[in-house]
Amino acid sequence: MKEKRIRKLAVEELEVERINVVGKDDKVQLVISNLERLLDPVIAGKVLSKRKGIPAAGLIFYNDEGDECGGLVSGRGSRAAAAGLLFDQYKQDQIVGLTYSKSNGERQYGLKVWDRPDTPLPEVWESMRSQDANPFGALRIFIGRTSDGEALIRISDCQGKERLRIVVDEVPRLEFLDENGRVMYRLPPSDDTESGRCVSD
After folding, report:
1. Residue 86, Cβ neighbours under 10 Å: how many?
2. Three-class SS of residue 121?
3. Alpha carbon separation from 35 to 6, 21, 38, 39, 106 (Å, rounded)
4. SS (H, E, C) 78-104
5. pTM of this prediction?
6. Secondary structure of residue 124 in the 3-state scheme
7. Interatomic CA distance for residues 170 and 183, integer angstroms
8. SS3 126
9. Cα–Cα distance for residue pair 104/107, rounded to 1 Å
10. In degrees rounded to 5, what are phi and psi of residue 98?
11. 6-53, pLDDT tens digit by residue?
């Protein structure tokens, strides 16, 4: 028997470990939770794995099928910290995110854009032994600050290999890289380049 709900409740302060926001069909649409009670990721009705990384408190969104579809999380470990506002592809992992991470005194933060396969994430998990080099997709774009203190725009190919780099530190530079990560063309030219093009070994 369905419990009768209080239609409206006004309080000055509410102390809870987790809040589940549900629709009229009782499906969870939003969860606000401390780090101990944050739910594990669910896609296509399946709990894929335990949440990885730094334990975090957060706010997780769910679509009308009950799948996790994004969230806002923040956490800290003994020597590391991380936070992110992430948006997920339908039945897949995150595709756009604003992220921050700190580990061993080094910080990185910025905008990230990923490519994800059309295959639903549960099927990808089940076929992890395939020959696909990037079964989960690849990070394609990063715009932000690196752990070295550089302001950086990094654009990668569909395999996740960095191919274009725009860096601003003491001397701003533009670099084009081959599939092996070797700088093929650079502006302004460095000492080992001619008109910006790298000299062959």
Report:
1. 22
2. helix
3. 28, 17, 5, 9, 23
4. CCEEEEEEEEECCCCCEEEEEEEEEEC
5. 0.81
6. helix
7. 19
8. helix
9. 9
10. -105, 115
11. 888 899 999 999 999 999 888 999 999 999 999 888 887 778 777 777
The helix/strand count (H/E) of the chain reads as 1, 16
Neighbouring residues of 16: CB distance < 8 A, sequence distance ≥ 6: none
Q: Which two tokens stand for residue 133?
A: 């080099």
Backbone angles phi, psi at 85, to 5 degrees: -110, 115
Query: Tokens in use for 103?
Result: 């580990």
The letter for the amino acid at 148 is: D
pLDDT, one tens digit per residue, over 127-169 is: 765 555 567 789 999 999 999 899 999 999 999 999 999 999 8
The residues pairing with 74 across neighbouring beta strands, listed in sequence order, are 57, 83
Predicted confidence band of residue 1 (pLDDT cuts 50, 70, 90):
low
Is residue 77 helix, strand or coil? coil
- Residue 109 neighbours by CB under 8 Å, 6+ apart: 99, 100, 101, 144, 145
Q: Give the chain's length.
A: 201
